[in-house]
Amino acid sequence: MIVYEEIFKKYGLSATQQEIIKLTGKDKVVLEIGPSSGYMTKAFLQNNCLVDVVEVSKPALEKLPNKIRKIINYSIEDERIEKFLARDYDFIIMADVLEHLINPDKALKILYKIATIQTKLLISLPNIACWAMRKQLFFKGGFEYQDSGLLDRTHLHFYTVTTLPKLLSESRWKTAVIMGTIVRFPFEETINKIPFLGWIFKTFLYKNLANKYKNLSYYHFLTLAHK
User: Fold this and answer.
1) Is the separation of the CB atoms in 37 and 64 below 8 Å?
2) CA 133 → CA 28, 76, 95, 155, 185, distances in Å?
3) What is the pLDDT of residues 120-133, one digit of tens each?
4) pLDDT tens, 86-135?
5) Cα 50 from Cα 69, distance rounded (Å)
6) Which of 32, 46, 57, 74 could be cross-linked to 81 through a Cys-Cys bond (beta carbons 3.0 to 4.6 Å apart)?
7) Rg (CA), the chain
8) Model-level pTM?
9) Rounded distance, CA 7 to CA 46, Å?
10) Where do the domains of the chain lie?
11) What pLDDT is recorded for position 8?
């Protein structure tokens, strides 16, 4: 938690976090799971949303902003949590949380029970099949854990653009949209430095290639699901 709080202090909200806030919009009822010290929570509150949070870390709880409707100090994997969750959520947010859980399928099934037909589930994750990881494995044979990022040492599970929808389906959730929030292509930096070719790549090829080769290009992705 401390590592990611420091990243936020240095760089602000990530592209993924900004997209989540944008999609959630204003005047909604939000369940945020794993808010850390509440940097996204503050944005939801500023957008006049009613916010419940699920957070197990006591130090994180002490830093959460005021005006949260309900703070639930349980793990989302704990079956006892169901009785504390409301049944009026417009959005359930799991921003870089699923990969840290012991039993992510159990958490998804609990959330499915309390969701309504209108509830939208937003899950963001790093993509273990992205170009950066493939390059590292191919050229260096490396799979070394780090303090943050794709190989965060606290990650218990790894997902791709194709395996997350499968997990969601097994928990009865239906995947509606998958979008890449951080996109990186092979040799992108080199191509962009070449006059005219870089412009053609960005203007005409970038978006189409990203959509066609999601598992290669999506370094970090956001999935919207519903009942």
Assistant:
1) yes
2) 37, 29, 21, 15, 12
3) 999 999 999 999 99
4) 999 999 999 999 999 999 999 999 999 999 999 999 999 999 999 999 98
5) 6
6) 74
7) 18
8) 0.91
9) 21
10) 2-128+156-182+218-226
11) 79
